[in-house]
Amino acid sequence: MGNEIVMKKLINAMGPTSAKKLMKETLAQLGLVELKTADDRLHFGSALITRGGVGKLIGQSIMMQARLHGAHG
User: Fold this and answer.
1) Distance of CA 61 to the CA centre of its chain
2) Does pTM surpass 0.85?
3) Total domain count for the chain?
């Protein structure tokens, strides 16, 4: 479920090709294969924020949604 939520946000912001690339790179950076928990999404969003630009905006949105779903970090 987590991957779908995040991919939808990424695709809406940057298109499918860039979204898939960013998802793959960020998951690898975090040592994850998929986003299974709200905490995973929180860490993913945090990693996007460090990229700046559009990544920062998407990351903030992902982090907020993760917190609403119980992430504690």
Assistant:
1) 9
2) yes
3) 1
Answer yes or no: is pLDDT of 31 > 90.
yes
Task: Give the up-direction half-sphere exposure of residue 24: CA atoms within 13 A in the CB hemisphere.
Answer: 6
Tell whether the model's pLDDT for residue 37 goes beyond 80.
yes
Q: The domain containing residue 50 runs over which residues?
A: 2-68
Q: Residue 63 to residues 5, 23, 45, 55: CA-CA distances in angstroms?
A: 12, 15, 5, 12
Distance CA 33, CA 15 (A): 21
